[in-house]
Amino acid sequence: MKFTSCFSNCFSSASETAIIDIGGREAEGENDQNFTVFSYSELKVATHGFSASNKIGEGAFGSVYKGLLRNGSIVAVKMLSVEPESMRGEREFVSEITTLTKLKHENLVTLKGCCVNGANRFLVYNYMENNSLAQILLGGETNGIKLGWEARRAISLGVARGLAYLHEEVEPHIVHRDIKASNILLDQNLMPKVSDFGLSRIFRDNASHISTHVAGTLGYLAPEYAISGRLTRKIDVYSFGVLLLEIISGQTVVNFDLEHGERYLVQKAWEIYRANSILQLVDPTVGMNYPEEEAIRFIKVGLLCVQETAGLRPEMSKALKMLTNDIDIEGVQISQPGLVADLMNIKLGQKTTFPSLSSKVSSLESTHSPLSSYS
Ligand SMILES: Nc1ncnc2c1ncn2[C@@H]1O[C@H](COP(=O)(O)OP(=O)(O)OP(=O)(O)O)[C@@H](O)[C@H]1O
Ligand SMILES: [Mg+2]
């Protein structure tokens, strides 16, 4: 086993099983026979020199480019820049590799390889023709794809399956920590693939874990995690609930309108549920011919997943069975959802306020001060 110096510390703490030789062409893990360490020049050629016309996305950690490899396969190349002083980005890079090389599931993105070049790190994935759920669902007319009910059902179930696999089938269990619409990629058949494992955490036992750094994306953050840093699988269940409500409603986690001002989707869904007019939440672009009973069930499962009390949220496998009606939720009581609505008490680095709700919280320090829950 050989590590370059910059990787050795990170790898030894982040993974027990992945073995990666960055200097060579091979990497071993449990499911990573095809993992390749690419040369920089290979990726440069594949992406036309990381040209603007090849750029397909931009995230908090860097840009993503479409590329064509010598063997003819089309890939997405994510470029991350590591800050030399803080090594920001390195941990996410290492976490992505160590986590993804051990996993194989049809609803998780496939990592084909990586590359290290100076302060730049590259992650190479299978290219997903339909980009992300955020773009398709919330990108309006621009993307040209209208999601019908069947597609929304298939996407919801696929994400639930991917998460149930991470939470309950993989040993040790994995908490993704950043489930959101832009991290759900869609292939040519609109099959969802959970991506971005840079923030994921591996659980070595069943004990809950207190994180000194809360990470994730506001709007999808479970309240107990934002407040105390208590990390459990239920924080992904919360984010999944928000995502499910987005998929059904076609609305973003927070909306602004003149009548109501800033409105959270979770809050809106709860009000609509309480007013007994649950179908009002269904995206009108779905049309009239959708199964109403199923839509009601999906929204109820969404609300169950965002319950304020983590213990009331179902495990992912259970949520999946509720969606497919293998578990009847008819008599299940739905209580008030939790919501991180007051951002003033969260401290981001030196800042005390938050610029936007969908901002990435990558080094957020938990202040243990009370955030409001929606009531
Ligand atoms: N394998 C892929 N195939 C096609 N498009 C991709 C792929 N990976 C990423 N993208 C596109 O690039 C965008 C940026 O991805 P990235 O994961 O860097 O950031 P993000 O998820 O949008 O935001 P954040 O950094 O907050 O997680 C995605 O939203 C998606 O549109
Ligand atoms: Mg992402």
TrEMBL record:
Q: Which UniProt keywords apply?
A: ATP-binding, Glycoprotein, Kinase, Membrane, Nucleotide-binding, Phosphoprotein, Receptor, Repeat, Serine/threonine-protein kinase, Signal, Transferase, Transmembrane, Transmembrane helix
Q: Which GO terms describe its molecular function?
A: ATP binding; protein serine/threonine kinase activity
Signal peptide (UniProt feature, chain positions): none
Q: How does it sit in the membrane?
A: Single-pass membrane protein
The residues listed in the UniProt record as binding ATP, with positions renumbered to this chain, are K78
| Database matches in InterPro entries | CR_Ser/Thr_kinase, Kinase-like_dom_sf, Prot_kinase_dom, Protein_kinase_ATP_BS, Ser/Thr_kinase_AS
The name under which this protein is listed is Serine/threonine-protein kinase
List localization entries: Membrane
Q: Main site of residence?
A: membrane
Q: Output the SUPFAM superfamilies linked to this UniProt entry.
A: Protein kinase-like (PK-like)
Please give the family membership noted in the entry: Belongs to the protein kinase superfamily.
Pfam families to which the protein is assigned, alphabetical: Pkinase
Positions of the Protein kinase domain: 50-371
Q: Could you state one GO cellular component term attached to this entry?
A: membrane
Q: Which organism is it from?
A: Durio zibethinus
PANTHER family in the record, alphabetically?
Answer: CYSTEINE-RICH RECEPTOR-LIKE PROTEIN KINASE 3 (PTHR47973)
